[in-house]
Amino acid sequence: MKFLRDRLFLANSLNHLSVDIFNAQKTMILTFMVGILGIGNTEIGVYSTIMQVTAALTQPFFGLLTDRRKTYWLAPFGLLWMTIFYAVAAYLASWWTIWLLIVGSLGSAMFHPVGTERATTRARHLAYAGVTTASATFFLFGQMGFSIGPIIGGQLLDGFGLQGIWGLCFLALPAISFSFYQNYQFRNLHSADVVANSVEQKRKSLAKEDIFKSGRWVMAAFAVLIVLRTMPAHIGMVFLPKLMADQGMNAGWQGFITAFFMGGAAVGGVLGGMLADRIGYRTALLWTMSLAVPFIWLYPIMTGIWLPITIFIAGATVGASHPMLVVMAQSIFPKSMAMASGLVLGFIFASGSLGGIIGGYYADQFELGWVMQQFAWGLLVSVLLTLSVVKPKRL
Questions:
Q1: CA 188 from centre of chain
Q2: Cα Rg of the chain (Å, integer)
């Protein structure tokens, strides 16, 4: 794993960690704002969705801009953008906080396609045979941010109110500086050149034909697979704090319990990437998503010691497929990986946002835990779609 010792890979991974620590604060802040603004589950779902869609729809644009103009500085600039808007949002502590968080989401859109392209391009250059493992490791840092973000944010919100978010802004400054410097140092590393060189050297390349079955409806089925797989993952991130709040937990405990879901997704992402490199995408997707179905169903109704255990396993099993889906999408556009990354990540974010709206609406009509359980059925359908989308052979 040479990429673990590489400065560019490490810089963008630490950048990813910081970006998703901020992203993890959105639902914590929205839940905190319930008492201030008097918002309910529907509003939490809608505002979370607006933030997600803002980031999702703009990611392909920033990815395309990077492929054409080589704007690799967008990776650290996205984190800087989020730092500024979160700092101002925390200061105002009003309805303006929500709108500033929405604008701040553009920073996540700037980072993710560029950071993903930088990480996977560097990994292809250094350890091509383990590109899915490298991608999973890069996403591990993001999942770690989502995991520790609620813990840190919950404690800061309990201790200092919204102004406690300033502590996160201060801690992000070293990552911003390191990322700016390393992305400038490696500004001449381009994905198209790496792919071309690997072909000349007759090294194995991940192409669409190696992964997907042929057929008119395969890409549409792949899109539906992503939607149905992403919804339960996003529902967990958005509504776990509210589920815990409904059980009487304070912000600190909400963050602690939510961290088990994101921590599981972090571990599962790496294991899923390694599994895909060893046994192929089809088998890895089938195993991980099949295991996710019962735990996605169980964790919203668990109590006591079984609550964090089932939450962790649910996060791990549903999160394992994330790096696989990203690398599969990159294989469709191997010479425009920033755009491909933006498209698939944007689509993943948008899919999760749709689940947020649906889940929030029905959670105001029925019990929140029961509503969260129902998304397991869609995950079961995505398992079946895998059989019609992905080739059975090992890559």
A1: 27
A2: 20
pLDDT of residue 88: 95
For residue 188, the SS3 value is: coil
Calculate the alpha carbon distances from 119 to 236, 267, 269 in Å.
27, 18, 15
Q: Which residue has the tokens 């046994």?
A: 279
Cα separation of the two ends of the chain: 19
**What is residue 71's DSSP assignment?**
-
Domain count, the chain: 1
Q: According to DSSP H, which parts of 280-367 are helical?
A: 281-298, 306-319, 322-330, 337-363
Which of 136, 161, 145, 127 minimizes the C-alpha distance to 29?
A: 161
At 330 the pLDDT is: 82
Give the range of the structural domain holding residue 63, as residue numbers without chain letter: 2-389
C-alpha closest to that of 183 among 15, 61, 330:
15
Position 202 scores a pLDDT of 42
The predicted structure's pLDDT at residue 196: 53
In a domain, 395, yes or no: no
Which token pair is 210? 């190696």
Burial letters 250-289, b for 16+ CB under 10 A, else e? ebbbbbbbbbbbbbbbbbbbbbbbbbbbeebbbbbbbbbb
| Amino acid 277: pLDDT | 83
Task: For residues 385 and 389, give the distance between their C-alpha atoms in angstroms, rounded to a whole number.
Answer: 6
In a domain, 231, yes or no: yes
Contacts of 171 (CB under 8 A, 6+ apart): 18
CATH of the domain at 229: 1.20.1250.20
Place of tokens 């149905």: 228
* DSSP line for 19-68: HHHHHTHHHHHHHHTHHHH---HHHHHHHHHHHHHHHHHHHHHHHHHHHH
Cα separation, 259 vs 240, in Å, equals 10
Structure token digits, residue 191: 């994905």
Under a CB-based contact definition with an 8 Å cutoff, are residues 55 and 106 in contact? yes
Which pTM does this prediction carry? 0.79
Amino acid at 160: F
Crossing angle of helices 7-23 and 74-92, in 10° steps, is 20
Low-confidence ranges of the chain (pLDDT < 50): 199-204, 395
State both tokens at 104. Answer: 């701040």
| Contact between 90 and 163 (Cβ < 8 Å) | yes
